[in-house]
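Schema walk-through. Below, the input block comes first and the output block second. Nothing else is stored per chain. Lengths vary across the set, and this one has 99 residues.
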Amino acid sequence: MVLIFGKLKRRLNFAVTNVINAINFSILYDRTRPEIVDEEKEFHCDQCDKSYTTINSLRSHKVKDCGRDKSYKCTVCLKSFRRKAHAKSHFDNIHRKHM
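--- output ---
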């Protein structure tokens, strides 16, 4: 009986810890919080009007997005994307459900 109770207690502690971690993560990374939304975007692209909060986001934008044509099209609705991965995730999330 004691062994079974110990296992149940460990499982409950594990479940509670997972819930607490999920809540803490959502609080830390909630993009709707005013202090994050209103954060000053100090890294500006010199080729377009986009701005970013981190230098790495700006670098990624310059390499992968800025000045590129939307050359990837969805085969179903013909929506255009700059990145192949975005076209694939669009197809998977929007159209694959209906097939």
